[in-house]
Structure formats: C-alpha cells, structure tokens
Design goal:
The chain is of the alpha/beta class. The chain has 21 helices and 20 strands. Helix 9 links the parallel strand 16 and strand 17. Helix 10 packs antiparallel against helix 15, helix 17 packs across helix 19 and helix 18 packs across helix 19.
Amino acid sequence: MLDGFIRVAAASPKVKVSDVDFNVSQTVLLARKAAENDTAVVVFPELGLTGYTCGDLFNQNALLNKAIDGLYDLAEQTRDLNTVLIVGLPVQVGGKLYNCAAVVYQGEILGIVPKQNVPNYSEFYELRHFKPFDDSENVAIEDDVCFGRMVFDCNDLTFAVEICEDLWVSSSPSEEYVNNGAQIIFNLSCSDEIIGKAQFRRDLVKMQSAKLMAAYVYCDAGIGESTQDLVFAGHNIIAENGKILAESKRFANENEDDAILYADIDLERLEADRRKANTFTSDLAGYSGVEVVRFNAEFPDITPARAISKTPFVPENKTDLESRCEDILSMQAAGLYTRLKAINCKKAVIGLSGGLDSTLALIVTIHAFDKLGIDRKGIIGITMPGFGTTARTKNNSVNIAEQYGCTLREISISEAVTQHFKDIGHDMDVHDITYENSQARERTQILMDIANQEGGLVIGTGDLSELALGWATYNGDHMSMYGVNCSIPKTLVRYLVSYESQRTADINPSLSQALADIVATPVSPELLPPTEDGKISQKTEETVGPYELHDFFLYYMIRYGFTPSKIYRMALQAFDGSYNAETIYKWEETFLRRFFAQQFKRSCVPDGPKVGTVSLSPRGDWRMPSDASRNVWIEDLETVKGE
C-alpha cells in the first residue's frame, strides 16, 4: 500500500428480484471488473443477492436457503480475487431473520454484520420481515463465522460495515466502529428516490465522513429493483473526511461502466487528522461489544487516480474561490479591527513596495478602517525607494495609496543606507547579504519610528510562504506590530489581490487596473539594482524556487505530516507537464533545508490572525526547536532517487 493510498468501489449490479443465481452472477461480474482495477474493497447494495424488494418472499425458506447458497457460491467464484467483497443478503440466526452484510475475501466469509436500525415508517416496512440486531454480545454461526458488530483489520487497513438506516439515525453504529479503529465505513443501502432526497443523502454522507474523520463508501441499489411502488437510482457516493471524492450518475447502472464508482482513499491523511485531533479516540481493543476480525491481505500499490491540486490552499471552483477570498479578507480585517479597537489606535503604518504582500496588507487595513469608521487618511502608506526599486513597482504603490485615499509618504533609503555602509565599512559594489539586509532593516526602522511619531501600528506584510522559507530579513521585514498576512501563503495572496481587483473594477477602474498590474509583477524584494532598461533584476522564484511548489510542500508537510517521499510523488502527479522530476526534487530539497534552518525566525514572529488550517505561529500551531536536525526528512526524500 504505497503512501497509504487504497482504492475502494461501490458497485450497483443489475438485479432480478428473488433470482439469486442471476444476482450472484452480476455481482461476480462487477467484482472482477473492480479487481482488475486494483480495488482493495468493493461494496454492493443492501440485500443485493436477493433484491431488496422481495416483500413477503423473505418469509420463504426456499429464498432464504438459496441466499446462503448464493453467498458460498459467490465466495467460491471469487476465490482468486485480491479484493474484499461486501454483499447484502437475509440471514437466519437463532430463529430470527436479519438484514445482513457479508464480508468475503478469497473464498472465505470473514464475518456477517446485521442491520441494527430497521425502519418501519412511510414506504419502509422492514420490521414485517427483519429483526433489528441489538444483542450485547456477538455470536458465531456456521463455519465459526462471526455474526454481529465488528471491525475488520487487515495490515494498515481497518474498516467496518453498516446498512442503510444505520446511517440515518441520530447515533449510528459507525460511531462505535471508528472508536474501535475503523478508517473506512462501507454502507450497503437500498434508498428509494423522491424529490430532494438525493441532496439530503449527499450531505448526510459528506457530513458523516467529516464527523467520523473517516472515509464513507455508500452503495445504493439501482435499476432492477421492483418499481411496484418505488424507484431506485443507484446513487453511490464516496466521501473522505467531509469531501466528496466521487459520486455516480443516478439511474445509470444499466451500463456496466457506470455501475461501479471508484475512489482512492488516503489513509495516511485520515490518520493525520485523527492524530492531530486529541478529542478523537480510537482503539482496536474491541470495546462496546465490537469484535475485531483480523485477516491478512496484500493489496496492490496504486498511483492515485484522485485529482491532486497544484494549489491546495486555493479552491478550484470559481464560486468557492470568490467566497473563500471574501471570508479570508473578512477574517484578516477582523483581526486587525479588534486589535486597533482594543488599544484605541486610529493610525496604521504600512511600507508599500508595489508588491503582492504589501498590497494585500493595505487592502486588509482599508477593510478594518472602514469597519471601524476611521478616516482612511489614518493609514500612512510609505514608499521607500532604494537601490533596486523600479518605476513600475513605485508607481503602483503610489497609485493604489492615492486611489484608496490613504496618506502617502515617500522616504528614500539610499542616502541613509549609503551612510550606514560607510559606518560599517561595507563596499557599495559588493551586492551580498549585508547589502540586501541593510536596506530591509532601514525600511523597518523608518516604519517603526513613524509609527511611534503617529501613535500607530506597523502593519506586517510578510506571508506564510516567506515564514516557511525564512525568506525575510531578521528584524527587518520579518518584524512588525501586527502581521495580517502571517497565515496567507503566497499562492493565495495573488488570488486575494486579484479578487480585490475584480471587485473594484466597476467602482474604481484605475485602482482595479493598478491591482491587476501588481498581480502580474514578478515577486521580488527589489534589493539589487535593476537592469539597464529599468526592469526588476532580482526575481525571488529564480533564487528560492517556485512558490507554487513550496506552498504544495508546505501544505502537505504541515497539514498532514506526510513524508517527503510521498509529497514528492504527489507533486509529480499534480505538476505533470509543468515541472520535471529533477526540478521538483531540487526545490523540495531546498524547501526542507530552508524550513529547518529558518525556524529561529518563526519562533519570534509578531501577533497575527490564523485564517486557514496551516499556520506557523509558535503560540498556536507550530512548536519546533530552532536547532532540530533535518536529516530524517532529507534521507526520506533521497529514497525517491531513481524512481
């Protein structure tokens, strides 16, 4: 199981009501198709071996006996498959009839799980035939097959099964199953279609997976069940911790290709979420009458077919992106608004470079001042041209300050830094780290001193990506009095500024145009002299690497604790066609080396609001010794060489 990825499926075969032989043959057919696609576990609909809509035929011994025979026949026919099958059928135990799910692997019946919540309302009348399972202890039936509530444990995969109504009740069996270690819940269902039910079902599966921090595989009966009174659509859904990974077309299972829904579950991702949430409890001790059934299987390594976004911090859907941008700007502004109000401060000082980060900081400050009802003239935007400043960035910084109605001041740092070089004996022609950092620290000193003069706050402009890489001058742009961008990655900064540009297009076209040009400007600290034609010579991404790669590495390392080798393989898939393997490896190694070496800068960052799941604040989210060794991570990355 490479990198914790495992393929699962929900299959809705053609059904003939009460024709067990036909139903077994169709189940085997789809089971083989699933196995050919490297599926580890495939689940089929509720009572699928007989059909759900048999009615009083469930009281006929001929059908019940045939169903058990069909189960053993199915097990024998699939003995050669390296795929776990979960099928539905009626089972008699102790003089009672139960609606059950049988778990089968390579000819062996691993266990039979009865339905615990049997509906008897509206169109459902299951109590006429089936008993709800509520025994406090599980039992063993023929061939020592366990019957009752259970969790199935196979190497790194742990799963459980519930049936239809078990999901719809207020306290579902799956809650106990995940407390007993289940990572994936499989649900066999026969849920009829009525207006509005599909959306409700979709939301229910999605939210149950989120509540359980699990994957949830929901398999529904489709065409073939009796339509005497109801219709069934084969609405299959696979969700992972609050996100729907795959969803089938309804009324489409006549076509074999549409009858199986696949998704690749990231078990390591689920375990990372559970590990981080200390309120989540999980144990394989078999508590609350839940039996643990262990078996051995070696499921195939897969290259995940699930989409892996290049920009995990950025929603792919345009509507979601606009909503996310509005939420983030509101949260950033709320953080600053609350701080200003708490200290009764009516002035803010921002260094405007004409770049993305300082522009976003200004936008956030505008929103905060507007919310407070404070005159925007209290926002003092300071442009501080130096040795590397270009006309493009300077003009943009001046333009947006004027368009927003802020107070604008220009203070050149060239003379002060030149004097500083003379004082410390530094050659002006040596463009080293001293040359660059002296300018950054001079700018910070100006901002801090003006804030003291005005009784205001210096608003930090540095972003999350820069914190991760340590791409900031210590006690220079690294420092402020409140950092509004501290948990905004560079890839998202660009979208936020672009969103503001679009939002202001009709209100203030000049402002919108200036913001759009800032989005199009190469990222640069502009600390080295420009080219002869006045263009930016120092492009950050040429030195430190593409931010879209670094944000990708950052997200999966911090959010889920993935190994560098797994992140590398995910990046190969996500950036296929954009970067080759050598380039991805180079910049991931750079990321790791810089991330570990630059922790000391993160240990003393200013206050700032957390807005996403990834944050590097030493007070809330990320505690790491500044002298920690990176060797384990580098060694893991080195294992992918030659793949």
